[in-house]
Amino acid sequence: MSRIDWHLVPFLIILYLLAFLDRVNIANARSFGLEADLGLQKVEFNTALTIFFVPYIVLEIPSNILMKRFSPRIWLSVCCLGFGVVSICQGLVQNYSGLLATRFFLGVFECGMFPGCFYLLGMWYRRTEAQKRFSLFFSSTSLAGAFGGLLASGIGKMDHMRGYRGWRWIFILEGAITVVLGVVFWFTFPSFPEQATWLQEDERAYIKARLEADQGRNAAERKITLRDVKSVLGDFKVWLGGFMYFGLIVPAYGYAYFSTAILQTYKYDAIQTQLRSVPPWAAAFALAMIVAVLSDCARHRFLFAIVPILISISGFGVLLNIHDNVNVEYMALFLIAMGTYSAMPVIVCWFNMNLGGHHRRAIGTAWQIGFGNIGGIISTYSFLPDDAPLYKKGYAICVSFICLSAASCCVYAVVLLRENKKRDKAVRDVGLTEYEKTELGDLNPEFRYML
């Protein structure tokens, strides 16, 4: 298992760190004059954030289907190269239209990153050991936030070097790093267990057997069809998984895109703003890993999602009510980042690992991430310039959606509990063939959901 971890997890962390960094570095660039140089007016910056989510939402499920067909190594490497090139182009745009075009294509190439990586992780690990890996991967967003702030504070000092403003260098240099690593990934990125060349046959058989004992056959050889998509989306539990994630995406992107704007209202200069954005991300990474380890040890997910959600709500509560104490307000940003980014990987892992089979997991994971990212559109218009410096409307919106996520988690837990009890009382052997069990995935009467 240690060999698997070293062959898989570091690649996924680096890949998603790059993706998230290239996605949210526009917030860092904003601190170094992007709006003034491109002549952005009123909500045009917010619209540039929003257009990213249009292809990102629509193309999630097709991306996972294509990844299954071409292999993660090929598909995710191509996507990495694509969004690296687009990020460089983002640093060369001359007007608002160019910014919109690059943000749109950034969404096209990044759509496969998140659901694809979770899908790949889910095909290697048992449910009781997956949370640590999911959270370590997901927390690359926290690392990206921290690293992005430090990197932006350094790159920002290159302002006017070779005639380029600091914000352009942020896009160009970070995009160039992504392109180089995308080329490396083409030769080194991991794939599904069935395609892993570094495994011996007895090791591959062992991995297959332990996963079958935990989740049933995954039917790796089976193609995914439109009928599968319709079948998976007809499951009420799958919709609940989408709402669980949707509710947390609003505060997550609200924080990622606008934390620097919030910090600027505390009268910090551009460099200090970037540096002070780092500690909350670091604290979020630490708490996420603590929660993940405890969740795996307890073999339980529900409570480890709800408690961080409550922490996030308390942070927004402070910002809604305290406006005259900068230290307390800065502390509230810690609570928001820690709570939100600790709950999200638990929710994704919980839902993902309760889906059985390649076809149901590929579609269900893409659906959860795709539907959930509709919240990203809402978040981009939650913190408008006219609402500064208090941003009461944005904070209230975030709290409302966090409560929606908490309610969805509670309903999902109740549904799983009832379904497990129902299956415990049912006849054990209903005469299903192995093929039929595989087709049913987690709907197989022998499957038990993890609470």
Give the helix/strand layout.
Blueprint: H1 2-30, H2 34-38, H3 44-51, H4 53-58, H5 60-70, H6 72-90, H7 96-110, H8 113-122, H9 130-138, H10 140-155, H11 166-188, H12 201-215, H13 226-233, H14 236-264, H15 270-276, H16 278-298, H17 302-321, H18 326-352, H19 358-372, H20 374-380, H21 392-425, H22 434-440
Structure commentary:
By secondary structure, the protein is mostly helical. Helices cover 76% and strands 0% of the residues. It starts with a helix and ends in an 11-residue tail after the last helix. It is a multi-pass membrane protein. InterPro entries: MFS, MFS_dom, MFS_trans_sf.
Distance between the termini: 24 Å
Mean pLDDT: 86
Unreliable stretches covering 5 or more consecutive residues: none
| C-alpha Rg (nearest Å) | 22 Å
**Class based on secondary structure composition and strand pairing:** mainly alpha
Helix content estimate: over 70%
How is the main sheet built? none
Strand content: under 5%
In DSSP terms, counting alpha (H) and pi (I) runs of 4 or more, how many helices? 22
Number of DSSP strand runs = 0
Shape verdict: globular
What is the CATH architecture annotation?
A: Up-down Bundle
Tell me, what is the CATH class? Mainly Alpha
Give the domain tally.
Answer: 1
Under CATH, the topology can be stated as Growth Hormone, Chain: A
GO cellular component, one term: plasma membrane
Membrane topology: Multi-pass membrane protein
Subcellular location: Membrane
GO molecular function: transmembrane transporter activity
